[in-house]
């Protein structure tokens, strides 16, 4: 008899974008600590595994001017998570930190410190920067090409693991009776040499409660999937619907096995949203209202400008798709988060086929295509949809976000979580003491007897 998979839940707070109804009367601040505290406390009340904080390193621009659908004023990730560690007890704290514009030693210290402060509840979401526009904000300047970004990110992860492992579990003795503080005089010694980093010295933070923080990553391309399958404890999947979600799930788990890992030790977690109603019809109507409000005509044009790389302001959002082709060679009209990783012409051709087949206007096409995988229905229907999705190996869990910040998650916790618990698919109480425990990841081997090996 097969056992039910336990659903992993993360609470996503991503800032201002085309998913966020920042203008809603019930919406709160995107920068005040009360926003982060309320979301985290609500997630912990719902027995979520972790709180996930996205990060923006540059304000996006359209034709040289900032536009208002962005993470404006977002505080730095790590101080926010450190503050949340003081007002939560069990909830994991996952932060997005860029591997392109940070250095191993400082990141290792920051995350190890947060793991100590939180009692072992820290996770690092590893991302890379994709453009020179963002690089201007940093002393490095410019940017790395795609292959070197992955090379740097891989070396960064290995470097941080070396630093975290430079202390053994028993190195910090602190024996008041004998006056002995350290077990060995070379605790924390490290030497790291590679194509990206050449550093050596003594790491200052003893081994943390988890041994080292959980590693999260997102990868869609073949190179990205291999990177995530090799280095990550969990992967953010962009696929929120079957069967493509199940295809991704099988593919990445197989890649993990190819790297000698137990596929069950790699968790797949798509982002998702939800809309609830007392009846199915009411939920459907609420969902249509939310999407109509999220994707205004201007928003639709800006999202398509990322693909066309043209000024589309002269087109009617309620008319057909632009009849011109993309212009990938022109200076970018959208900078900071542009559409750069897929074939523009193939995407436009596919969208035109979809718009013609479904009889969609420009704005309706954007609503149809720029979707985050919503679960829509009554609480019982949404609970069943989520449970079926996970049990059918679409994922190991979900990263849940709401268009309404910070109180949008309350409805999910109050109305859906109890039903998932009744189904036996979600914990009723926390059983572990660390994030690694709660995610069902195997414990790290205890370290003793020697300093960490170099990269």
From TrEMBL:
Extract the coiled-coil ranges from the record.
Answer: none
User: Signal sequence span per UniProt?
Assistant: none
Residues reported in the UniProt entry to bind FMN = 96, 150, 221
Q: Name one GO molecular function term.
A: oxidoreductase activity, acting on paired donors, with incorporation or reduction of molecular oxygen
The record places domain Luciferase-like at: 29-392
Q: Is Signal there in the keyword field?
A: no
Q: Where is the chain membrane-spanning?
A: none
Alphabetically list the UniProt keywords.
Answer: Flavoprotein, FMN, Monooxygenase, Oxidoreductase
Family statement drawn from the similarity comment of this UniProt entry: Belongs to the NtaA/SnaA/DszA monooxygenase family.
The protein, known as: FMN-dependent oxidoreductase (Nitrilotriacetate monooxygenase family)
